[in-house]
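Thread: iron/sulfur cluster complex, take 2
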Amino acid sequence: MTEPSAPGDELAGATTSERAPSVTLRAQRHAKDPRPGLSGLPDGALEAWLAAEGQPAYRAKQIRDGVWRQNAAAVEELLTLPAALRSRLDAAFRADTIAADEVTVSDKGLTEKTLHLLSDGALIESVLMHYPARGRDDAGRPVHRERHTLCISSQAGCAVGCPFCATGELGFGRDLDTAEILDQVRHAARRMTARGGHLTNVVFMGMGEPLLNLDRVLEAVEALSDPERFGLGARHVVISTSGVVPGIRRLTQLNPQFTLAISLHAARDPLRDVLVPLNRRWPVSEVVAAARDHARKTGRRISYEYVMISGVNDTDVDADALAALLRGDLAHVNLIPMNPVAHTPWQASSSERVTHFAARLHDGGVGATVRRNRGQDAGAACGQLAADRAGEPPAPAVAHRRDLIVRQSEAALRGDRNVERLPVDLEAAVSPRTAAR
Ligand code: SAH
Ligand code: SF4
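Output below.
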């Protein structure tokens, strides 16, 4: 979870009142509640159910208003409905697909990480980041308005397995359904409403690879941008991908209003094969070609994410390769010093190195911004808190993993292409449903 490192983003005056979580959530495993979540229902589903129940069609709007305007957490809060209908509705649907939350506050109140327990015991997370207004114009108005950005998960765990990412270390759990994606947003919105504010941005940068659960993610984005439902402009949504090329091409055809972010992390294939294992299926040139077409067709700038790892991907050679790759494109690079994670031997690049890398990109004709990591003290790096709750991996496993990462990255730095096949669960994840499109 990252943010611009501008001086106005410093942390004055925030509250820390939510600090101690009242429950300690642990991953469990049991059957998922079969009742669909109300927030994720497709168009017409409520109408069809009401008709079958012999209820008037106008009840559908009352229920939708209860979900989206009132943001009800339980069917019993829908007081516009008669009690008998509430009880039928409760038997068929859930007003909330999240069973429990645990909130951890950090950065003097500016970052709130929530661990969400789902009905089958899976744990996912979202992170709410507050950015105070900063800068004043001549009329005293803020140049950058205050923002409240929620980072959400699209899957429990992730099959891609990037070695610097805590979610990658967890492996793949399951896809989230549409309501589970949207209910993360509704939970954060509830907290914002209680303080008299509202969410301004939603980014798919939590756990999981959104483009490997694209149908559900697109349904969620539609609900978020629908004025009758969440009502957040699509321009305030970012979808981040590690480079699922058929998914990017599918998005391009939809000509979307949201921003596409590509997690690049390396401009050279041998290194990217290690840092983002999906690269063995869709190499850098294909990812960037798809992103370039996307920018041309939509007129929207691509954000490239680049996690800076000391001595691995932060050399002048890397900066020059990256500049050569993106020069002339409608693109911007976000440089993110790596958040430390238990299972990797790597460290974040020094701030001098990051600044130098950014300057070299600028000289090479590519715009770049250094992002500051949010929530490090709360383990708010991608997937970190959930990973902790899954239990520390045994020491020999960590040592083995570190050894493998070191060997692979050393080979990559020598320029050797990693010819290993994709990990089995990643192979299953990318075919045939995504690759076939
Ligand atoms: N799977 C998608 C979206 C979720 S990851 C993707 O990879 O794009 C969101 C962002 O968090 C990615 O850019 C990812 O590279 C970054 N990230 C993961 N682990 C990190 C770490 N240890 N430090 C800094 N950023 C990290
Ligand atoms: Fe998955 Fe993204 Fe983490 Fe890679 S960085 S393991 S794609 S969540």
